[in-house]
Amino acid sequence: MNLTMKKQTLFILMSVVLLMLQSILTASVRHMDATRVKLLPGSPFYQRQELHRTGYLASFEPDRLLYDYRKFAGLPQPEGVTNGYPGWDTSWLRGHMAGHYLAAVSRMAAATGDESFKAKANAMVSGFAACQDAIDQDGYLAAFPAGAFDRLEGKQGNGGGVVVPYYIIHKIMAGLLDAHHYLGNEQALLVAKKMGDYFSERLSKVGLEQIEKMFRTDVSRNPQNEFGAMSDVLAELFAVTGDKKYLDTAQLFNRSWFMEPLARGEDKLVGLHGNTHVAQALGIAHCGNLSGDEKELMASENFWTFLTRDHSFVIGGNSVHEWIDEPGVEVGPSIDKDKVLPPTTAETCNTHNMLKLTSILFERNQAAKYADFFERALYNHLLASVASDTGAVTYFMPMYGHFKTYLDGTHCCVGSGIENTPRYNEGIYFQQDDSLWINLYIPSELDWQEAGMVLRQEGDITQGNIRFKIVKASGQSTKLNFRIPHWITDVVILKLNGEEIRRERSLSAYITLERILKAGDELTLRLPTSLRLERAKDNASMVSIFYGPVLLAGELGCENMPNDFADKDAHLKLAAVDVPQIVSDSSNPADWLKPIEYERLVFALHNTGPADGILFRPLYDIHHQRYAVYWEIGKD
């Protein structure tokens, strides 16, 4: 065989491999995003999403978010715009909110159909593009000088006071890719590609020793080189464009010092900064799904297992004072100077990224444990982090005698917080070919285009019966996989048009229906539930109380409470109020929690000694007062 024929054969083989890879990626399980799923009225998720659509998210002005970008690029400001938003966004984290905002408004436009958010997203993209052109540094885009990256690379440079520049770049690029995906904005993809090209070229010139130093984030508990989920956004840029240099660059951020112990099954997470490393695990997982690299696959899976099993609170959140604690520590002395359940538990950004990681892992392996965790953290942390009256969001989620502080400023959790509500549509449904996984029971309508089906889900998960109506059908056979949660109390029954067709007793599993469905068919799923206890990992006498997936919190009043719209650290030194013991010989909460008539999911303690009369309601419905989600239970 001559050289020409060998080259042709090699080209053919490479083409076949590429086609096979594309086929695998196309046929893979994928979450159904906000372009396909609409929330329906009747859930707290719809209420919070509307609150952000009409109020909190809507209150941000694109031109103020672009103020520092235009200032750095030397562009004139629109009339009347004299400053950006004060706080982190105009200081050491300059410009991060613009990226978060672009992601939020792009998703909100898709999630709700509100065209005003599409206009705002397009305005942000145009503003970014103009700044990128004016900066004229081979695709560089930021609100601060590139000297911030020079400093990371061990050179002299003026970073303009910004200390975590890659963290901000990740937010910008993620927002641009969301504008492209959800709104079809091609200019957004062009700007993102230019940024990807700039950083791919820049990092290719940095020596491996300096790369290791730049991206080593375990040296201190508060790393000054936090880089967000850069590998995640670059992996997504590769998935969109097919240009492998972006995946290669993404994998520069996936460091062996972090991955190798995880891949070996070693938990060395204690003392690490929570969100820094959750974001890294997210990027490692995304790269692993695209590359098939065994180390990336195992490291991301084991990270999720360690964090959710050994390092998380009952709400699904993790970290104390932003740090990952020892395995098994939940209600005992913590990594924060041995304090017990201080007000700095569970940073919201961590859980925002954990849900992204969980979705990626479910796309890889359709295990119900991933959906169980997603549900726990979504209901009991992210939903609870949004004030039901103002839409303001939290940084930490206190759990024992403290109150929530809603952020007055532009902290990182404000950025992820405005992204969370339009993400409520996602995580409910996953699809592959003719198979659908229904993971969450939230009133919604799904446009399942691949199967030619429109499916409407209604009902309240806490009332035990969920209804599905086939609005449109194509006449082809489909496989519907309904999640059986870990918290059910009796047999699950699936009915089609009133006739029982399936029943299942397994917990944390799926019940499957495979057949041809037609428009007008109705399915009902009985998910029996009741009050139940969960005991803390490190103290069996400390319990939390659930109704189905919903964590209940006990009200402890608001006497002498300060203004809870404040800086994240404003009230951390205030002492918690006493949390009385629940005294009962019974471990069945139905024996000592009495439902309050006319109030759904509200209960009162009775015959429990000093705790008598305390009202319990969902944590996501408790605002502007002190509360507890952990309670000591003792015998009379």
Topology:
Layout: H1 3-27, E1 30-31, E2 37-39, H2 44-56, H3 62-65, H4 67-73, H5 96-112, H6 115-135, H7 147-152, H8 165-183, H9 186-204, H10 208-214, H11 230-241, H12 244-252, H13 256-263, H14 274-291, H15 294-310, H16 348-364, H17 368-382, E3 400-402, E4 406-407, H18 412-420, E5 429-432, E6 435-438, E7 444-448, E8 453-458, E9 465-472, E10 477-484, E11 492-496, E12 499-504, E13 509-516, E14 522-526, E15 531-536, E16 539-547, E17 550-557, E18 565-566, E19 582-583, E20 593-595, E21 603-605, E22 615-618, E23 626-628, E24 631-634
Parallel strand pairs: 4-18, 6-10, 19-24
Antiparallel strand pairs: 1-5, 2-7, 3-23, 5-6, 7-8, 8-9, 9-14, 10-13, 11-12, 11-14, 15-16, 16-17, 16-24, 17-22, 17-23, 20-21, 21-22
Notes on the structure:
The protein is of the alpha+beta class and about 625 residues long. Helices cover about 40% and strands about 20% of the residues. Strands 3, 15, 16, 17, 19, 20, 21, 22, 23 and 24 form a ten-stranded mixed sheet that branches. α5 runs parallel beside α18 (about 410-420), α8 (about 165-185) runs parallel beside α11 (about 230-240) and α11 runs parallel beside α14 (about 275-290).
